[in-house]
Amino acid sequence: MNENSAVIEVVEGDITTLAVDAIVNAANSRLAGGGGVDGAIHRAAGPELHEACKALGGCPTGQVKMTPGFRLPAKAVLHAVGPVWHGGKQGEPEALASCYQNAMALAAEHRFASIAFSAISCGIYGYPNDEAVEIAVKSVKQALAAKTTVQRVVFCCFDRAMADRYRRVLGS
User: Fold this and answer.
1) Nearest by Cα to 53 from 22, 69, 32, 34
2) In this structure, which of 12, 62, 120, 167 has its CB flanked by the most CB atoms within 10 Å?
3) pLDDT tens string for the chain (172 positions)?
4) CA 134 to centroid of chain Cα atoms
5) How far apart are CA 59 and CA 98, in angstroms?
6) Alpha-helical regions (H) of 46-91
7) Domain locations in the chain?
8) Could you please report the per-residue DSSP string of 20-32?
């Protein structure tokens, strides 16, 4: 598959309700659940997710680890640890791009056809949303241009403002 045959969608809604092969969680390095989308995913998946994450022993920034989806419609949860924004001079853009690249690679490795991303690092981690969306879209498009099984990518946004950012970048 290449980028031209893959579908990229922007959805405004709750990532925990999407029936895709994998959802990408904006996780913390302890994989412990927390606020925002991370907490919502942990609540929806059930206590088994917490136990599975505990067994993984954490995850460094820029990396991704996988667990089953448990009670979610998604088969798997890819836990991506995005960077905390410190002004952009401490490797934040590279670490954020790495989250998307590693999630796409893990999806392809497991032969997933569909994946949904939350807006990694855009909440409490303070990443400037416009820059984060540019990095997300560019990284995903690069992954789709390579050999991959992924045929559908969803950028799942909690509100209209974020969804509009993705639509603008994808439209350009």
Assistant:
1) 32
2) 120
3) 444 589 999 999 999 999 999 999 999 999 998 889 999 999 999 999 999 999 999 999 999 999 999 999 999 999 999 999 999 999 999 999 999 999 999 999 999 999 999 999 999 999 999 999 999 999 999 999 998 999 999 999 999 999 999 999 999 6
4) 14
5) 13
6) 47-56
7) 3-171
8) SSEEEEEE-TT--
Superfamily for 3-171? Leucine Aminopeptidase, subunit E, domain 1 (3.40.220.10)
CA–CA gap between residue 126 and residue 20 (Å, rounded):
27
Please name the residue that has the structure tokens 């905390």: 84
38 is catalytic: yes
Helix (H, G, I), strand (E, B) or coil at 5: helix
As a residue count, the chain comes to: 172
Quick one: which of 87, 95, 117, 105 has its CA closest to 143? 105
Distance separating alpha carbons of residues 107 and 150, to the nearest angstrom: 7
Helices and strands per DSSP (H, E), number in the chain: 5, 6
Per-residue pLDDT of 40-87, as tens digits, reads: 999 999 999 999 999 999 999 999 999 999 999 999 999 999 999 999
